[in-house]
Write a structure and sequence with these properties.
This protein is α+β, with helices and mostly antiparallel strands and 331 residues long. 39% of the residues lie in helices and 18% in strands. It has 11 helices and 11 strands. The strands form 3 sheets. The chain has a 5-stranded mixed sheet with strand order 2-11-10-3-9. Strands 5-4-7-8 form a 4-stranded antiparallel sheet. Helix 1 runs antiparallel to helix 2. The longest helix has 24 residues. Bound molecules: the ligand CC(C)(CNC(=O)c1ccc(Oc2ccccc2)cc1)c1ccc2c(N)nc(N)nc2n1. The ligand CC(C)(CNC(=O)c1ccc(Oc2ccccc2)cc1)c1ccc2c(N)nc(N)nc2n1 binds next to strand 3, strand 7 and strand 8.
Length: 331
């Protein structure tokens, strides 16, 4: 492009490049379906950076160039969660799970199904969007006061900067480091004589605590989004429906969740993922049962810390798994 380029032509070309780059990025980081060679992506990315440098006024907040800020932060601001971030009560046996189910069905007259989900072992995050644009990301903290880590979460390619619809929502999810990225990072740190991370959860937490967003950007973090706040405001009636809707908006949703009617199906789900756990490309520490209809969630409500309509079943710590991790994941 000669420098006869007008700002308008630059704007048009930049929009084409952003559309293409965001589509490629969505396929690769949200759908785990790489559709383009890195070199093609990098070529278009470099052209966009050049255009935006030449004509800064054409920059928009959801340009892929806006994911990695230049500056190093001097700290993270505290922020108040308008809606608290809850934890999950947990049980350690199938019998306790049945007790939870019995207790809940005693209080709730209507019959209802559960949405069964994997419990990702990462860091709980909250993401706020205004008219479809990502405006704030934060950690749970104590559930009421968390840390503003928006700049670092912008570097996580699985987090959309702009949704497919201009909705104003807040979602909750887990930010995690995939096992393969964890093994590579530890091998690298070992080679550099730096302390290694004990597990992917600590590595993800350490990466999100970086004040230099360029370092966070290099840590290959990802997310699974698992809860839509105030779903009733959007006329969404079930957890399983909310997950489907959030996927359509562009969020990365874990594909292993399943609606189960009877307790026996829950057993099968637990056994299936206890067996699959080692082969999954991310750490899970259990499964989560959520009453699927939000009406049931309304009836039983929450305690200060945890919902009464959800429970986490934690897998027994499997030392065999730890040994296998050391062998299998060292690159
Ligand atoms: C269900 C919730 C606890 C999120 N939900 C909330 O944090 C939450 C917070 C206020 C809510 O409602 C209120 C609104 C206003 C005031 C009080 C409560 C409802 C849900 C949760 C936590 C961790 C999860 C995990 N590791 N894996 C999966 N798969 N799911 C998970 N789900």
């Amino acid at each position: 492009m000669g420098n006869l380029l007008t700002e308008q032509a630059a704007q048009k070309r930049a929009q084409e490049l952003r559309k293409q780059l965001n589509e490629w990025s969505y396929q690769y980081y949200v759908m785990d379906r790489p559709t383009v060679e890195d070199i093609a992506y990098d070529k278009s990315y470099r052209e966009l950076v050049k255009l935006e440098k030449k004509f800064p006024k054409i920059i928009v907040s959801d340009s892929p160039t806006q994911r990695v800020g230049g500056r190093v932060l001097d700290g993270f601001d505290k922020l108040n969660h308008e809606l608290p971030m809850l934890s999950l009560g947990d049980v350690f046996s199938k019998q306790e799970l049945l007790d939870f189910d019995k207790r809940l069905r005693k209080v709730v007259a209507e019959d209802f199904a559960y949405n069964c989900e994997l419990k990702i072992d990462g860091l709980a995050i909250s993401l706020v969007y205004k008219n479809g644009l990502f405006v704030q990301g934060s950690t749970r903290g104590n559930g009421v006061i968390g840390e503003d880590i928006t700049e670092n979460l912008k570097t996580v390619k699985a987090i959309p900067l702009k949704l497919t619809e201009p909705v104003s929502i807040e979602v909750r999810g887990e930010c995690y480091m995939p096992k393969r990225a964890f093994a590579k990072l530890n091998a690298q740190r070992e080679a550099e004589g730096k302390p290694v991370f004990a597990n992917p959860r600590n590595a993800a937490a350490g990466s999100l605590r970086q004040l230099d967003t360029k370092i966070t950007a290099r840590r290959h973090l990802s997310t699974f989004i698992y809860y839509l706040m105030e779903p009733e405001k959007l006329g969404i009636e079930k957890q399983s429906e909310a997950l489907q809707k959030m996927s359509e908006w562009g969020f990365r949703i874990n594909p292993e969740s399943r609606v189960t009617a009877a307790a026996t199906e829950i057993d099968a789900y637990i056994d299936e993922y206890q067996a699959k756990r080692i082969a999954l490309p991310y750490d899970i520490d259990g499964i989560v049962l959520k009453a699927d209809p939000f009406s049931v969630q309304q009836i039983v409500g929450n305690t200060v810390k945890v919902p009464r309509w959800a429970i986490a079943y934690k897998f027994p710590p499997d030392e065999q798994e730890t040994i296998v991790r050391q062998i299998e994941w060292t690159v």
